Amino acid sequence: MTASSPDPSASEPLAYKRVLLKVSGEALLGDLEHGTDPDRVKSIAAAIAAVHAKGLELALVVGGGNIFRGMAGAASGMDRATADYMGMIATVLNALAFQDALEKAGVPTRVQSALTISEVAEPYIRRRAMRHLEKGRVVIFAAGTGNPFFTTDTAAALRAAEIHADAILMAKNGVEGVYDDDPRTNPDAVLIDEISHMEAVSRGLKVMDATALTLCMENRLPIRVFNLDDEQNIERIVSGQPLGTLVITA
Predict the structure, then answer these.
(1) What crossing angle do the helices spanning 38-53 and 80-104 adopt, rounded to 10°?
(2) pLDDT for 105-114, tens place per residue?
């Protein structure tokens, strides 16, 4: 059975029916200093194909930090709105790379862009996106929200709420989840198994940006924060294993 055909006989029940996976642009670097590592994209795509074959409906939002980061451009003197639009275009490049890798893995995929780029992507239309998911296609949401001053974290929260996702799977690089302090500078930082959206906001913990986290709280949207260094964690989570940190509405 190909990855594009969900396996109705899969004996292991899924913890979710529909999820949105958020992957940072930096996760695509691999061993590169900048740009996109094709092998890294292929590995993540293979993990997505595995859960898709189990019948999971999956949407994807990918950042553009491996190509261009709006905040860095603004800090160097570029107009913030211009820098953010450049960042949005970078996410389209990453979305197309994922689409190619997923389709080579046998997964039917559609890219929907919040910016009009009709030659390479559909425009974002909520009902069409949901129909794609119902038909077993992976949908990649590109170009953020289509507006400057909003991150791809906020785009992930917004799209997840719009498509009625059961949860956001928030992939992190090099950390297992959410800690009570920065584990990169504090070796005694403690991994938090479960926390509420409100507490995460009030403590300023690095789940996602505050706008996105608040949007998830208002829509009672759970977030599972996990380490993407091991791509198989995606399958473990959708199978119900309690990896990383769960952020829920108290």
Answers:
(1) 60
(2) 999 999 999 9
